[in-house]
Amino acid sequence: MANPISVFWFRRDLRLDDNAALSLALSSGRPVLPIFIFDPHILNSLARDDARVTFIHATLTAIRTQLETQYGSSLAFYHGKPLDVFQRIFHAYQVTAIYANHDYEPYARTRDEALRKWLQSQSVDFHTCKDLVIFEKNEISKTDGRPYTLYTPYQQKWKAVHCHTKLANYSAEIKGLVQQTALPYLTLADIGFHRSSLAVPPYRLDPTLLRHYEQDRNFPAMAGTSRLGPHLRFGTVSIRKIFQQAQAYSDTFCNELIWREFFSQILWHFPHTEHNSFKSKFDLIQWRNNETEFRRWCEGTTGYPLVDAGMRELNATGYMHNRVRMITASFLCKHLLIDWRWGEAYFASKLLDYDMASNVGNWQWVAGCGTDAAPYFRIFNPIAQTQKFDKNFDYIRTWVSEWNTGTYPAPMVDHKLARERCLKTFLPV
């Protein structure tokens, strides 16, 4: 058998630069085999043309090409259950250690724990690192060690700790990889997918955008947001470098990044929130769950132009402006009294930047059943929101071509009556 090697497992960190676990693996003194595993548990529920799978595959292929042309190495593609894949790898190589970056979602934690136990039985080390966030798990906690469940005090503590923390830089030289280019490769077809017609756009984070972010970010017709979400979700950029770049220009943008970390630690400490309300009493809400009304919401034919514009943008592009996400979510949960989990699942199937912690956290915030939630009586008025954030109807006209014509549907529910119905439903809870 060949000489001992280490394995670096790409997951939500699809980059060579400033990658914590990759850097640690390269400093191990053993040749490093980079791998990626297309996990059926994750893939099987997705549409066969899922744009995120196309993006992941293209990103990994680019990394593989770079490793082959610049470093005489490569990146091995595998398809299967992670434990089964590692058993195959162990038949081909003498592996002494596995390196990977932390993932905080419930399935990932279960997967990693099962792998760790098996590796212990094989006397193989499993080294994992913090990379997806700046602060994780218990690093931002109350003085008694309990997790924060309100954003504002969490943000204040986060910033206080950050002021006294020197962020690591893992821009290590790429050397010490396994010198083998003929590693397994899989096409999209090999894993049961085909190329999506949607593409993940590049992000924008220049000084001009950041300086104007606070004043522009709430207007969906403006190009005032970064489109950074998918790149943070899949780790094609370093959160450490992004935060340092933003810090010089926009405290408001930095606060949005801290929201991401807040929801990440909430999911870590309270994994039940994947499926259940953080505030358990709200699981007693008597949702109407009208399937016809839900379908109209999904299609963007509610008769409320701003809601419909948002849903049509999502369906066409895999993106929806954040302000409009709040409005569409509020409409589903509070105007139609449809379970937030239905909407969360629909967003999960469509959003290019889908992240479980943020998606679940934001949906529960809007529905009023989560941590740091908007109170149950906060019900967005789509008409008032339009007047405030799209008063010239530029965004609406972009996505709702038949708006203001005889073919556009009447509102499917009266706002005043829907609000009163919502309050009656939530108040007993």
Automatic annotation (TrEMBL):
Cofactor note: Binds 1 FAD per subunit.
Gene Ontology molecular function: any one: DNA binding
Highest taxon above the source species: Bacteria
Alphabetized Pfam families for the sequence: DNA_photolyase (PF00875), FAD_binding_7 (PF03441)
Positions bearing the site annotation: Electron transfer via tryptophanyl radical: W287, W340, W363
Obligatory cofactor(s): FAD; (6R)-5,10-methylene-5,6,7,8-tetrahydrofolate
Family annotation (InterPro entries): Crypto/Photolyase_FAD-like_sf (IPR036134), Crypto/Photolyase_N_sf (IPR036155), Cryptochr/Photolyase_FAD-bd (IPR005101), Cryptochrome/DNA_photolyase_1 (IPR002081), DNA_photolyase_1_CS_C (IPR018394), DNA_photolyase_N (IPR006050), Rossmann-like_a/b/a_fold (IPR014729)
The Photolyase/cryptochrome alpha/beta domain, residue ranges: 4-134
Record-given protein name: Deoxyribodipyrimidine photo-lyase
